[in-house]
Design a protein that fits this description.
The protein has a domain of 126 residues: Rossmann fold, CATH 3.40.50.2020. Helices cover 21% and strands 37% of the residues. The strands form 2 sheets. Strands 5-4-3-6-7-8 form a 6-stranded mixed sheet. A hairpin with a 2-residue loop joins strand 4 and strand 5. Helix 1 packs across helix 2. The longest helix has 18 residues. The two termini are 15 Å apart.
């Protein structure tokens, strides 16, 4: 944990939670796992879920040593304010061919699991050979989708609202290099 301090994002106060050093250490650990697991896989496709995962995805993908790895993005939205709306909207979709390929979804946070479950099923329906999930954060106490498989996870956290390192509160705070939790 970082030293105790607070910041204001929009109308909420947040306290320090995870430092950039802790985050980078876990990103490197997870990237090493992925590199080992996908060694020999032809043209794995890393799919970043925008907007929240873009910083995590950039840091993670720079640590991926698989020479045939490819990268793309998809934009989904399911949050408004501090909570999920329960509805997953596709804002901009996948354009790459995925038939028979290994797709690694890069997500910022898995809480209820609804977004991830829907995306996994869509990708398999489009013909992906296998789908793996890599998330920066997972909230096991918030999970509502039974048996949702998360292949790679940097941190498991309580069911608190967080901001920073790509995660936002009403589109603000994404640029913070550390992760902060609502006070």
């Amino acid at each position: 944990m970082t030293e105790s301090s607070t910041i204001q994002v929009s109308d909420r106060e947040f306290k320090s939670y995870l430092s950039r050093e802790q985050i980078q250490s876990e990103v490197q650990r997870v990237a090493s796992q992925i590199n080992a697991d996908l060694q020999g896989v032809e043209r794995p496709l890393f799919l970043c879920v925008l907007n929240g995962a873009f910083i995590f995805a950039a840091d993670l993908f720079r640590c991926i040593t698989l020479p045939q790895a490819e990268f793309t993005t998809i934009r989904l939205k399911s949050y408004a304010g501090l909570s999920t709306t329960g509805e997953v909207r596709v804002i901009s979709g996948l354009t790459e061919a995925i038939e028979g390929r290994t797709v690694v979804i890069i997500e910022d946070i898995v809480d209820s699991g609804y977004t991830m479950d829907r995306l996994i099923h869509q990708l398999l329906g489009f013909g992906a050979g296998q789908v793996k999930v890599c998330t920066l954060l997972r909230k096991p106490n918030a999970l509502k989708v039974p048996n949702l498989q998360i292949d790679y996870c940097c941190f498991e956290i309580p069911n608190d609202f967080i901001v920073g390192y790509g995660l936002d509160y009403n589109e603000q705070g994404r640029n913070l290099p550390d992760i902060w939790v609502v006070k």
